[in-house]
Structures are given as C-alpha cells and as structure tokens.
Amino acid sequence: MKIPFTKMHGLGNSYIYIDGFQVELEEDRLPELAKAVSSVYTGIGSDGLILVLPSDVADVRMRIFNKDGSEAMNCGNGLRCVAKLAYDRGYVDQTEFTVEAKSGVVNAAVEVNHDTVHNVTIDMGQPILERGQIPMVTLTGDEQDHVIQEPFLVGEENLYATAVSMGNPHVVFYVDDIADAPIDTVGPSVTNDQRFPEGVNVEFVEVLNDQEINFRVWERGSGITQACGTGACAAVVSSVLNKRVKRGEEVMVHLDGGDLIITWKDNGHVLMKGPAVTIATGEFYL
C-alpha cells in the first residue's frame, strides 16, 4: 500500500502528515502506521503521525498519534502545521479559521508571505488547573485544588511540581540551569507515575527574566523532543502562577528547536505564536 505523506516540523518537533481529504485509512491500522513511519531505522523518522481531516464542527480536524502508537489529545506544534497545510492546500480560504483536535476546537490565524504560510498563531483556549481535571491523583481528596510547587518525590529526589492541562496533561519542574535538567532520568520516571493516571508530559524550565524562559521536555509517548507547543504554553501558565513571569505579556520560550511566543491573556486564553515548516513530501510503503 502506497500512502502519500508530507513531513513537517514546528521548531524541530516533526510529524508525518497524512492528508485525509485525499486519503482514507483503516482505523485499526493507524497505531501500526504511526509506529512504522516514526522509526528512524525502518520508517521515515518523526515524533509521530498526524492526520488532517474534514470536520463536522470546525474548518479542519487533526488527529495525532505518538511514535508508540497511542493517540494524543492535543499538540501545539502539530496544530500550527495543520493550519499551514490546510491553508496552503486551499482547504480553507481565510487567514483565520478553526481546527478541531481531540481536546476541542481552537482558533488559528496564519501569516502568509508569497502565498505560503510561515507563522501561525493558535488560541489554545483556557488552561485547566483543577487537579482532578488534569488529571492528577489527589492525596487530600480535594480534586478542585491547584498543584503549584507541590512537593513531588521522584526516587530519593525531592522536587516541586506545578501541574497544568492544555487539553493534555503537563507537569513543570524548575531548574537553575536548563543544561543540567534531569530530562532523561526524571522524564521517563514521571511520565508514567501513578499520580498521573493518563500519563503526563514532563517539562523543565529555567526562568531567565520575566519575559524569557528556557525549556526542555520529555513528551508522553515520544520521549525527548525538540519542542512541545502545549508544553511551552503550560510552562508559561505555570510561571505566571509561580509569579516568575507576568500575565498578559508576551513570553519568549527557548526550546531545543527554536523559539515560541506565548501569552496568557487577561481573558484567560493562551496564545501561541511560532513557525510551521514543510520538510518533504513522498510516498510511504506499508
């Protein structure tokens, strides 16, 4: 079976995109396909698979599968690339439109230069802060409380966790130097911690000043990636909650793959602005 694909990335967070307006795939083969295309040895190499589809409730729909075959709720970098692909291929004819993800519908605004999208702003909606909705298991019985700098034991190491959902769960830990972040040890341990019944994306943040932070991530289902858009949003929300950056102002988030501009606006919505890039097109043989 030959499957046309486009490989795209947002700050190095790369996925294989299948145009569901043109190609129909069997539902039960999607996890297998995600694992197959993601392999750097026997596939194309990516952080996962994203389907771009028609939607009954928005202008376009996104489904995302991690490299382990599990389906994810949301992906910020993926949303920007879906918006670019939809506009570049003429599936939408306005520069502002809606995208449906498993976590809900968001608004997208594309910046067009010479008929091609380069930057995309996504209104990620309001963050979810209640423990029970993240979800994170409570030890006190109060599922409505917020998790802000809560003591969090990992092995014999005492850390402090702030938890946020951007349609998918995130936990943020602060470090003095991002170069020393224990991403490859704490990351895999925490992502499957029983305190997070649906797993969690694990972020490490170094605050440089009130408008700039460094960021690294261990993504649920994918491991270390170059960037995570929802994670960058969660990191800024966390940093506002911890009074390390200011709400309503743009914050530059430095990720391994590049920079995102995140704003937690006074109306409660989180805006994410960054690039979306097409790498290659081709056919995958399954």
Structural description of this entry:
The record marks 170, 219 as: Could be important to modulate the pK values of the two catalytic cysteine residues. Keywords: Amino-acid biosynthesis, Cytoplasm, Isomerase, Lysine biosynthesis. It comes from Piscibacillus halophilus. Pathway: Amino-acid biosynthesis; L-lysine biosynthesis via DAP pathway; DL-2,6-diaminopimelate from LL-2,6-diaminopimelate: step 1/1. It is found in: Cytoplasm. With 286 residues, the protein is an alpha+beta fold. The chain has 2 domains: 2-124 and 274-285, Diaminopimelate Epimerase, Chain A, domain 1 (Roll); 131-268, Roll (Diaminopimelate Epimerase, Chain A, domain 1). Helices cover 15% and strands 42% of the residues. The chain contains 4 helices and 18 strands. The chain has helices at residues 30-38, 76-88, 183-191, 229-241; strands spanning 2-10, 13-19, 48-53, 60-66, 71-72, 96-101, 104-113, 116-123, 150-154, 157-165, 169-174, 201-209, 212-219, 223-224, 251-255, 258-264, 270-275, 277-285. The chain has an 18-stranded mixed beta sheet that branches. The chain is globular and about 50 Å long. The termini are close together.
